[in-house]
Amino acid sequence: MTKIELTVDGAAVSDDVEPRMLLVQYLREKLGKTGTVIGCDTSNCGACTVHLDGTSVKSCNVLAVQANGRTVTTIEGLADTAEGDLHPVQEAFRECHGLQCGFCTPGMVMQAVDLLGENPNPTEEEVRLGMEGNLCRCTGYHNIVKSVLHAAEQTGVKA
Amino acid sequence: MIPVKFDYLAPTSVEEALAALGEHGDDAKILAGGQSLLPVLRMRLNAPEVVIDLNGISSLRGIRDDGDAIVIGAMTTHHDVRDHELVKEHALLLAKAAAEVADSQIRHRGTFGGALAHADPAGDLGAPALALGAQFVVQGPGGSRTVEADDFFVDLFETAIGDDEILTEVRIPKHTGWGAHYEKFVRVAHQWPIVAVAVTVKGSIDEARVGLTNMGSTPLRARATEAALAGASATEDGVRAAAEQAAEGTNPPSDLNGAADYRQHLARVLTGRAVLKAAGAA
Ligand SMILES: Cc1cc2nc3c(=O)[nH]c(=O)nc-3n(C[C@H](O)[C@H](O)[C@H](O)COP(=O)(O)OP(=O)(O)OC[C@H]3O[C@@H](n4cnc5c(N)ncnc54)[C@H](O)[C@@H]3O)c2cc1C
Question: What was the ipTM of the complex prediction?
């Protein structure tokens, strides 16, 4: 067992974990943060995307011990829940119906937030390329792309 | 799936990492970005007893100017290679190829050194490194040595890095002002290339370097095409004629993505496209 201390969704946590434990397992099984889902288990689908120190990673392809001393944000920590609001990207996915079954949505939203952080005003092509590591089996991506562009417009006022 | 149990070491210096590697030998595995190693461990294709994580060694990260070369630390991520001003200015080909590796999340974790050490023949960074004449600095118990690009890639998943050595940095001779293009052929987004061609040219065209991805067990140079392009003008006909020789001496695999002769056809077509784009003529 290895001791880890990190910040997850704003809260300090510490635990003893097996080195082989994946970050996604740690989030789901130890912390109960089941908002982050396991899709493919091969690091292709992106459903498990979270932010590690502010950048998007596939949490099935990072060890929990590698998050020691670092900050993790999951879909559950994105919105300011105290206010009961959604994050603008979550709001945009709802507004544009950027989902059908919803399984890929946590990862899509987390990757979209990363993408817009780096490029607040993307073209449609840049959205499609920036989201290439996230697979959706329902929508054909159309409304997902619309959602990301809509979020950019809504928040772009600030940029 | 989850990996078999292992002990985890997080050294903070190269010396400490080398000592751990020396102590555990064949039972140990180096962990860089983990974007190739962790899938392998999860599928239980490998089961090291000790995993030595290089992420705590800050000296292995970063890109610096070193006179006639730029030096890229082994632990620099694909994302940082893609965006770094020194890379864009002096080794544009690498910036373009790094942008084509996998997807955004994987580029945030995967490292330049890890990808080259892994030496997957379908990896996107080997051919550009070869084309640019990269020099690989590896450190072992006896100190550092430099391996030339032509000697680094030995076979499928095999490089000149010894069992007791770590790749610490890669020197890329400056190709300031050279045009560049990485033409990657895939069926779907974020896939490994079926074939890809890495081209950088000086002027249009004084000199050309052409690297091939997935056309054999290691990255290859298309030397006959390079020779035919030197001093040629960047016209469609001239470039296509030179590109006809791009598959000479290659030995590509046949698999579900394509037969060997199809890959050789692709190499010729993609080389033509890549050269024209690199020379600004397409
Ligand atoms: C879904 C998916 C898609 C991908 N698509 C592509 C793609 O299209 N193109 C592409 O090029 N790559 C692709 N990759 C792989 C990615 O580029 C990896 O980042 C890269 O292959 C390995 O780098 P790493 O830093 O993650 O190394 P790791 O996975 O940590 O290590 C890989 C191997 O190299 C060894 N090693 C690592 N660093 C060193 C060192 N400094 N010294 C000695 N040995 C070392 C390790 O022991 C291990 O054997 C993909 C990966 C995934 C999961």
Answer: 0.95
